[in-house]
TrEMBL record, chain A:
Recorded GO MF terms: ATP binding; NEDD8 activating enzyme activity
Pfam families (UniProt xref): E2_bind, ThiF
Enzyme Commission number(s) of this protein: 6.2.1.64
GO biological process, one term: protein neddylation
GO cellular component assignments: cytoplasm; nucleus
Protein name per its UniProtKB record: NEDD8-activating enzyme E1 catalytic subunit
Keyword presence, Ligase: yes
TrEMBL record, chain B:
Pfam families per the UniProt record, alphabetical: ThiF
Statement: the UniProt record of this protein carries the keyword Hydrolase: no
Name this polypeptide is given: NEDD8-activating enzyme E1 regulatory subunit
Cellular component annotations (GO), alphabetically ordered: cytoplasm
Domain of life: Eukaryota
THIF-type NAD/FAD binding fold domain span: 23-521
GO terms, molecular function: NEDD8 activating enzyme activity
Family: Belongs to the ubiquitin-activating E1 family. ULA1 subfamily.
Chain intervals for the UniProt region annotation (Disordered): 1-20
Biological process terms in GO annotation: protein neddylation
Length: 446, 527
């Protein structure tokens, strides 16, 4: 079989070598692995430029993603980010210069790529993703995330799953289904994944792959610190509230204020000396308080390019992509040699976002409701920090807000779980971070 | 600002420097020493073909602050470049590509020096004269064979690493040639892998301390009992086990029984219904109750005969001393770190000090052996200490001469495992991608038959493989054109490896990485 269905040179012949000739060699011919539906045509190439793509995050991944999309031939790009540029971004966020520190990431990044790559339009949105409604998200063909926060990922994931119009989908109209491509990095490691909302495993299905760091018990911080991190957490959680060192700003801790970090550092250092613990540094203090994840240009380049490669294949069908084929997830590790693991993460029936079934939860009947609520934050597959709890019948057991309801339901916190819900019955849990989702748990007593 | 109590050592009050702030997120990975190594490096890129992969690699090295880069390139910026290369714009059309890219790359980091030169035909050898300028050379395919031999000759002569890259369509590979054996001390093992507590052969100070904590263990009050560090708990019950059974638990079954014994010693009449320290002890049994075996990678270092030119390097002198230490004690020097565990602060710090003291004692013994070597006098004690701390995780990447396998051998083995993998639906080998790209190393053939015959000419009997044929079709489809995403991804991987090699931290690949942008997978081969 000849690899070419359209003889190169026939299309657009006579013109000087075009800017997009490399890409078009691929798009104007079929390959041995392309789906049989793929038809190379100039129209398909033109369609690529008409697609609207949303990039969430204009940080380390976002800068790379914008560059890659522009150089893949996408012409209608939006980018959303609420952050401003910090000096610690400059070792990887290559669209920013020292003189940009303090400016909006989305705006500076959009302007830079528009100037560099002729013909591309990038619309910046300097706000939170939660500030935009469904109509905003509906205008895009697909969405690429380069975020460092699990919460933001969970929010957009739930929003996109909710947006899917199942009836339309049954009739073959997929306008409401927005493929979500998500990248993440930490040091030399990262992952990229493709999600077809409601059809393939979603971010919530995969939540347990990002287990939260185990919290140090308060009593360790308060009475028996052993590690430098314990001293820093003590300064952060206990000393700050007790001593209220900055009344001029209502003692609101600003992680980016060097005076605040210095105060915590000195407190932690003094405590460490008291207990003969060594190792507290300014850098460690900052790392613990801000939960800093190491980040480098090269890993961002790998993961962002992987995401954009998948977006390009999805948009053009020029080759199979993650999500439409066998697999939907690529793990990358560069610590020890290079290792990739590309696999299919299965959709979960009991996924609170895209599944139909309640998640089984085995708990101690002697637990108080308070203990149950606290356990939801630490569970890798729940990670809910401010849960409100109702019974399946709709009776409120504990509500975080409004205040009147919180006051009314607060006495329940002391009650034992076995007195509030019967074995095998369901609880519905909501959290302000994911307003549209109700997590269903089937309670089983051990 | 608040002052710290006067009778304590005053802390350094100044915050991080501007440079520390800019590089904060990477210093947390490779530290000041790694950063210094990067800043001392001068990277040469001999850019060839459409050359995006090389520029993308440099971008990821300029950002973290390598000292200097030089680009040599015969190319003149064309319309096609603007569709794939981000470090060019309209104003660059018609200019030498090396100079144009250099200017835009330098904007990324004012701390980095860079120069770019238009390479005349046959001009490369002029830049590769005797003087030793470059820390590492990158070059991209397709490139003419004469240039490759100039680069290889320079690499051999000055003993520097060479990295070649080839990206076309959805496929790419890059290949590292190290100048000789490449040992790494600072491999950054996963922190959970590094626990070495010596529970089965404790030294007297540790045994005494633990025995003191567990004397009258059953009559201890609730607070004391709940705060015995798990190391002491395990040592206590191991002693009882040995007294009863004559030896330590060694089989899985014995260890499981031992674990039950430890678990059953936990007091359950506490407000929490258990004790955290006993839970930690129970959880630690399988991992810590064992004599650490000599890791295979360390044995490889011990068994390796370094080339004459390397034998007097600090690494091999220290390695020899550690080998002697191992021969004498049948164990490696103690790393000396203690994982966090439930305990009173003072008890934990005492325990830490006991492990640290033993580690220092081991280091002192190794230093003594190092000093007996004719070139061992000048070796810094800190270097020996770092080596001993990481001894179980040192790693040797062998030089290019070590037992090379022919491409034909590798191909046959890969094709055979593909047949096996087909039975259970495993992923297919990416080696054909390397073979097909390699067949277009010097010019981008567009015809399937040409590429296949080129493969056939260098490696007989593999060109008939069905999967290889398809891969060749896909390579022909790209006609040598780079896709920005694939070149950017490959540049990311390549720069990670360059950073590992320059900082001598983490473990670089050995030695060829192939990426398939269709199935989104990478695979490593030694070629």
């Amino acid at each position: 079989m000849s690899p070419s269905a359209v003889v190169p040179g026939e299309l657009g012949s006579g013109a000087a070598p075009s800017r997009w000739s490399f890409r078009d060699k691929i798009l104007l011919s079929t390959g041995p692995f392309t789906h049989e539906m793929f038809e190379p045509s100039e129209e398909a190439v033109a369609a690529l430029g008409e697609m609207q793509i949303l990039v969430i995050g204009a940080g380390g991944l976002g800068c790379e993603i914008l560059k890659n999309l522009a150089l893949s031939g996408f012409k209608k790009i939006h980018v959303i980010d609420m952050d401003t540029i910090d000096v610690s971004n400059l070792n990887r966020q290559f669209l920013f210069r020292h003189s940009d520190v303090g400016k909006s990431k989305a705006e500076v990044a959009a302007k830079f790529v528009e100037k560099r790559v002729k013909g591309v339009s990038i619309t910046p949105h300097n706000c939170r993703i939660q500030d935009k409604d469904e109509d905003f998200y509906l205008q895009f063909n697909s969405i690429i995330c380069g975020l460092d926060s699990i919460e933001a990922r969970r929010w957009i994931n739930a929003t996109l799953v909710n947006m899917v119009d199942e009836e339309q989908l049954q009739e073959g109209i997929s306008d409401s289904l927005k493929p979500l491509i998500d990248g993440g990095t930490e040091g030399f490691k990262g992952q990229s994944r493709v999600i077809l909302p409601t059809m393939t495993s979603c971010i919530e299905c995969q939540l347990d792959m990002h287990a939260p760091r185990a919290a140090v018990p308060l009593c360790t911080l308060a009475t028996i610190p052993r590690q430098p991190e314990h001293c820093i957490e003590w300064a952060h959680i206990i000393a700050w509230d007790q001593e209220k060192p900055f009344p001029d700003v209502d003692n609101k801790l600003d992680n980016d204020d060097p005076e605040h970090i210095t105060w915590l550092y000195q407190k932690a250092l003094a405590r460490a000396q008291e207990f003969n613990i060594s190792g507290v540094t300014y850098s460690m203090t900052q790392g613990v308080v801000k939960n800093i994840i190491p980040a480098i240009a090269s890993t961002n380049a790998i993961i962002a390019a992987s995401c954009c490669n998948e977006a390009f294949k999805l948009a053009t069908t020029s080759n199979p992509s993650l999500g439409d084929g066998e697999n939907n997830y690529m793990m990358y590790s560069g610590n020890e040699g290079i290792y990739t693991y590309t696999f299919k993460h299965e959709q979960k029936e009991d996924c609170p976002v895209c599944g139909q079934k309640a998640k089984d939860l085995t708990v101690d009947p002697e637990w108080t409701l308070q203990e149950f609520i606290e356990s939801l934050a630490g569970r890798a597959d729940a990670q809910l920090k401010k849960p409100s709890v109702r019974t399946a019948e709709g009776k409120s057991l504990y509500m975080q807000s409004p205040e009147s309801l919180e006051l009314k339901t607060r006495p329940n916190l002391e009650k034992k779980l076995r007195d509030l819900v019967e074995n095998g019955h369901e609880l519905a849990v909501t959290d302000p971070a994911f307003a549209t989702v109700s997590f269903r748990f089937a309670i089983h007593y051990r | 600002m608040t002052e710290v109590v006067a009778d304590q050592t005053p802390p350094i009050l100044k915050g991080p420097s501007d440079k520390e702030k800019k590089y904060d997120r990477q210093l947390r990975l490779w530290g000041g020493q790694g950063q210094q190594a990067l800043e001392n490096a001068h990277i040469l890129l001999v850019n060839s073909g459409s050359g995006v992969v090389g520029i993308e690699t440099l971008k990821n090295l300029v950002l973290p602050g390598i000292g200097k880069f030089t680009i040599l390139d015969t190319g003149i910026v064309s319309e096609t470049d603007l569709g794939v290369n981000f470090f060019l714009d309209e104003d660059c059309l018609g200019q030498p590509r090396a100079e144009a890219c250099t200017a835009l790359l330098r904007e990324l980091n004012p701390d980095v020096e860079g120069e770019g030169h238009l390479l005349e035909k046959d001009g490369l050898s002029g830049y590769l004269q005797d003087h030793h300028l470059y820390t590492l050379i990158l070059f991209s395919y397709p490139i003419d064979p004469t240039s490759v031999s100039h680069i290889e000759e320079y690499g051999r002569k000055h003993r520097i690493p060479l990295v070649s890259m080839h990206s076309a369509g959805f496929y790419s590979y890059f290949r590292i040639v190290l100048p000789g054996s490449f040992p790494i001390v600072d491999t950054h093992p996963d922190s959970t892998a590094t626990t070495d507590l010596r529970l089965l052969n404790p030294w007297p100070e540790l045994s005494q301390f633990a025995a003191g904590l567990t004397k009258d263990i059953d009559s201890l009050d609730a607070h004391a009992h709940g705060h015995i560090p798990y190391i002491a708990i395990l040592l206590h019950y191991l002693k009882i086990w040995k007294d009863e059974n004559g030896s330590f638990p060694s089989t899985y079954k014995e260890k499981t029984l031992f674990r039950e014994k430890v678990s059953s010693a936990m007091r359950k009449d506490t407000p929490e219904g258990g004790e955290e320290n006993f839970e930690e002890a129970t959880a630690a049994v399988l991992k810590t109750v064992s004599v650490p075996a000599l890791p295979g990678s360390v044995k490889e270092v011990f068994d390796y005969e370094p080339a004459e030119i390397d034998a007097d390097s600090n690494f091999w002198i220290i390695a020899k001393a550690v080998k002697a230490f191992y021969a004498q004690h049948n164990q490696l020097p103690l790393p000396g770190s203690v994982p966090d565990m439930k305990a009173q602060s003072t008890t934990y710090v005492q325990l830490q000090n006991i492990y640290k003291a033993k580690a220092r004692q081991d280091v002192a013994e190794v230093i003594e052996m190092v000093r007996t070597h004719p070139h061992g006098k000048g070796i810094d004690a800190g270097e020996v200490e770092t080596f001993c701390k990481n001894a179980a995780f040192i790693k040797l990447i062998r030089g290019p001469d070590a037992s090379p396998r022919s491409l034909g051998e590798i191909a046959r083995k890969e094709f055979q495992s593909d047949e096996e993998a087909a039975a259970w639906g495993g992923p297919v080998s990416l080696f054909p991608i390397y073979l097909a790209l390699r067949a277009t190393s010097h010019e981008s053939s567009t015809r399937v038959a040409d590429i296949l015959s080129e493969v056939d000419a260098s490696i007989p009997d593999v060109a008939s493989n069905e999967h290889l044929k398809k891969v060749v079709e896909e390579v022909a489809r790209a006609q040598g054109g780079e896709l920005h995403n694939i070149s950017s991804l490959t540049g990311g991987m390549t720069s990670q490896e360059v950073i590992k090699i320059i900082t001598k931290q983490y473990i670089p690949i050995d030695n060829t990485c192939v990426f398939d942008g269709i199935t989104s997978r990478a695979q490593i081969f030694r070629t």
